[in-house]
């Protein structure tokens, strides 16, 4: 039972990588998730690989209308 569970976990990882590639539609890589994993294992920094966004927060002002309905 233990080995079967580990096989299902491994299958789950592979299926999620395939679904990730299908959602991202990466033209540069055959399997995006496997390429990211390979870059991480080879010690390539994320700033060089460009796989992850460098800016994660957009700061902008929200404009409101001046008409106050009282």
From TrEMBL:
One of its GO terms (biological process) is monoatomic ion transmembrane transport. Signal peptide: none annotated. Keywords: Cell junction, Cell membrane, Gap junction, Ion channel, Ion transport, Membrane, Transmembrane, Transmembrane helix, Transport. The keyword Nucleotide-binding does not apply. It comes from the Eukaryota. PROSITE patterns: PANNEXIN. GO terms for molecular function: gap junction channel activity. It is a multi-pass membrane protein. Pfam families: Innexin (PF00876). GO terms for cellular component: gap junction; plasma membrane. It is found in: Cell junction, Gap junction; Cell membrane. Structural component of the gap junctions. Belongs to the pannexin family. This is Innexin. It comes from Nippostrongylus brasiliensis (Rat hookworm).
């Amino acid at each position: 039972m233990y080995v079967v569970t580990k096989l299902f976990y491994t299958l789950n990882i592979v299926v999620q990588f395939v679904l990730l590639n299908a959602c991202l539609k990466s033209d540069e890589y055959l399997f995006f998730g496997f390429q990211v994993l390979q870059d991480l294992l080879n010690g390539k920094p994320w700033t060089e690989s460009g796989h992850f966004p460098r800016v994660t927060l957009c700061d902008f002002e929200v404009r409101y209308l001046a008409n106050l309905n009282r």
